[in-house]
Amino acid sequence: MRQSNLTFVWITDRNQVLTQMNYKHNALNLIGGHIEEGEDCRTALVREIEEELPGVSIGMDIVVGAEAIGKIEIDGFNKKAHCATKYSISVFLAYVIKKGWLENVLCNKEILNRLVTYQDIYRGITDDGVKISDFPLPQLLSLVRYTERAFAQIREDSIHCLIPTEYFSLVAYDKEKV
């Protein structure tokens, strides 16, 4: 069976998650992608964030967990490779820490970035009819919800993180050290 290792980031803001249009699948999905040869899952994730969210400053705009909150494995069929595939997916939590950053990301005309609610993910479609990917968003939602309940106190207008500081890497990513 073919193996495919993926990593995604769950960037939350007030019970919504940042997604990006995947035109190949014509659906919204998380920021992230394949782990390349020689990369660990966090290094791959940082690369994917930098590729998919140009201009983002990790540690200044968003804070990304130092460790994945979990990994799920799903057996599926890869249409491109025409074979059965075991998907191993790592997910990291991230929180917006710079006011105005998210608004700039959402205004980017070249890339369709969009906030979706957890309810949208459950339904698989936004209120205005945009499809949400059925892989891996629904599978990751329960893992994320469990972790969020364990680590964050959600208020009406903001998220007050109670996450231990050692969980998050507040140091900007340095490509030379990886």
Provide an overview of this structure:
The chain has 178 residues and is an alpha+beta fold. The chain has one domain (2-177): Nucleoside Triphosphate Pyrophosphohydrolase (Alpha-Beta Complex). It contains four helices and eleven strands; from the N terminus they run E-E-E-E-H-E-E-E-H-E-H-H-E-E-E. Strands 1, 2, 3, 4, 5, 6, 7, 8 and 11 form a nine-stranded mixed β-sheet that branches. The chain has a two-stranded antiparallel ribbon with strand order 9-10. The longest helix has 15 residues, at 137-151. The chain is globular.
What keywords describe this structure?
178 residues; 9-stranded mixed β-sheet; two-stranded antiparallel ribbon; Nucleoside Triphosphate Pyrophosphohydrolase; 4 helices; alpha+beta
The geometry reads as globular
CATH superfamily: Nucleoside Triphosphate Pyrophosphohydrolase
Strand content: 35-45%
The mean pLDDT is 80
Give the SSE map.
Blueprint lengths: L1 E12 L2 E7 L4 E3 L1 E4 L6 H12 L9 E4 L4 E9 L4 E14 L4 H6 L6 E5 H6 L13 H15 E3 L4 E3 L6 E2 L9
Parallel strand pairs: 1-7
Antiparallel strand pairs: 1-2, 1-4, 2-3, 2-8, 5-7, 5-11, 6-7, 9-10
Outline:
The chain is an alpha+beta fold and 178 residues long. It has 4 helices and 11 strands; from the N terminus they run ββββαβββαβααβββ. The chain is 22% helix and 37% strand.
